[in-house]
Design goal:
The protein is an alpha+beta fold. The chain has one domain: Histidine kinase-like ATPase, C-terminal domain (Heat Shock Protein 90, 2-Layer Sandwich). It is globular and about 50 Å long. It starts with 9 loop residues before the first strand and ends in a 9-residue tail after the last strand. The model has no long low-confidence stretch (mean pLDDT 92). The site of magnesium ion (MG) has 4 residues, from helix 2. Magnesium ion binds next to helix 2.
């Protein structure tokens, strides 16, 4: 997956506080709109950005107020590449998809939807990247969704 910073790269640095993920969502939507992404694809992008940013705040930075979350985004060949990084150790394990029946029966906790949604909505994802901004994930969202990269 392309990692380069290019002349269309934007970077948003967020305080580690729930609510600020909206800044990342809005920025990503403006960026995608500039390049002609459809409203539906922009909704996908906003969803995955929100899930990744909230995870970074809660799991990566463990709620620490001095920590930061960085979202970097660029466009290459009709694909938006988004990295979301935090000051934590990275995602240690990817769990299987949530089992709705077990959750309803209170056998499993109602968690694990963030990474599942990300896998469903993006065209490609790397859950373990390291940049100078920290550990995180990188997602590729094509203007027109492909079925590749599905789990
Ligand atoms: N940035 C991160 N740093 C470290 N661990 C992470 C990070 N993001 C996710 N994880 C780990 O992956 C697990 C699954 O994340 P996921 O978003 O799917 O579920 P969740 O955040 O626990 O619950 P929710 O369904 O509310 O999103 C988390 O519980 C956490 O253990
Ligand atoms: Mg989550």
């Amino acid at each position: 997956m392309a990692t380069n910073v290019n002349e269309r790269t934007i970077e948003v640095i967020l305080p580690n506080q729930i609510g600020y993920e909206r800044i990342a969502m809005a920025s990503s939507a403006s960026f995608a709109k500039m390049f002609g992404f459809s409203p539906a694809r922009i909704e996908d992008l906003k969803t995955v950005v929100a899930e990744a940013a909230i995870n970074a705040m809660q799991h990566g930075n463990k709620g620490r107020p001095d920590a930061r979350v960085t979202m970097r985004m660029n466009l290459k060949d009709d694909t938006i590449y988004v990295t979301v990084t935090d000051d934590g150790e990275g995602i240690k394990q990817i769990y299987p998809k949530p089992d709705i029946d077990r959750i309803i029966d209170n056998l499993d906790p109602a968690i694990g939807f963030g990474l599942f949604l990300i896998k469903q909505l993006v065209d490609d994802v790397d859950f373990n990247i390291r940049t100078e901004k920290g550990n995180g994930l990188r997602m590729a969202i094509k203007k027109t969704k492909s079925d590749q990269g599905k789990v």
